[in-house]
Specification:
Elements (H helix, E strand, L loop, with lengths): L6 H7 L41 H13 L4 E5 L2 H10 L6 E5 L4 H10 L6 E5 L4 H7 L4 E7 L11 H11 L2 E5 L4 H4 L9 E5 L13 E5 L2 H14 L5 H11 L2 H20 L6 E3 L9 H7 L6 E5 L3 H10 L4 E2 L9 E3 L11 H7 L5 E5 L5 H13 L1
Parallel strand pairs: 2-3, 2-4, 4-5, 5-6, 10-11
Antiparallel strand pairs: 1-7, 6-7, 8-9, 9-12, 11-12
Helix pairs in contact: 1-2, 2-9, 12-14
Length: about 375
Amino acid sequence: MAKSQRFGTLAIHAGQEPEETTGAIMPPIFQTSTYVQPKLGEPKGGYEYARVQNPTREAMERNIAALESGTHGMAFASGMAAIGAIVQRLSAGDHVIYEENVYGGTHRFFDKVMRRFGLDFTAVDSSDAQRVEDAIRPNTKLIHLETPTNPMMKLSDLRVIADIAARHDVHIVVDNTFASPYNQRPLELGAHMVVHSSTKYLNGHSDVVGGIVVTNDDDIAEELRFLQKAAGAVPGPWDAWLVLRGTKTLDVRMERHNANGARVAEYLAGRDDIDRVFYPGLADHPQHALAKRQMKGFTGMISIELGSLDRARRVVQKTRLFSLAESLGGVESLIGHPAIMTHASVPKEMRDRMGISDGLVRLSVGIEDVEDLLEDLEQALRS
């Protein structure tokens, strides 16, 4: 599929053709663990074992790679498995810089798991690019960014940090889960890798767990494919098919997520009983100008400060359309409490430094009728 085609067309067609035998418009689910070889040492089409190759998974990988302006996509069983594969490319003694306000599971994986294998990690506020450069050491191999961040909605200037990384010969990976490739394409801004929890906006229907890494670097792709084979944290064909089904509507879903998110953020910002609204699309967001340069839209992710745990608890338990649950990016609206839910594994002193207070509530605005969502928030906040 030609890369010159526009996003909505790529979402539906990239990486796949009608199935050869029957002409099926959707790629089949190749639910197999192995492949019969016509002759010893001559596997048909190169297919030997499903951990290594699966046609359904490969169609999904090609599709998402095209959406991210990449040439290689490597799918994994979860977003954390994808991040794990990226870090497994490194060796004991290597140093990683990462945005301090990453998803709590990412911080936990870096701090509690990979440190035990001799890797060193430094968390910085990457919204200040100078702090990233100041943290670089001779053994720094990777900069892991998340923009917008979860849940404080801070941005990193990808072009500026890409220039810094190039001067120091350091790779950049960007977790693009919150933005989606509809709103932001980090490879076009200088990143070496993009990672997603495909569980979220890419799938969009809250019915699968998955992850993917996209790159334009042949050597990185070869290493990650080796790790797919060697470590084996790959998705099954049914999961891959569900993600591929989801990306076909990514264009139209994100348009609605963006519109609903903007309406809800404006409504919340207009209330005097909310201490602060964190949303890059608002003019008073400290990085609004960067958001307009770097992003096409601002998604449905919003955080609000309600001032106390007691009020936050009441609100998240009073909503009717916003379901109290972890995760994000599905067609349905969700509400959560980062300090108790997604970021409970982050030490309290670190949460306090980042602004993840006991009164902070995170919204994932879905694609329902926005007037119904506003009415739901109104009744919950009145409580």
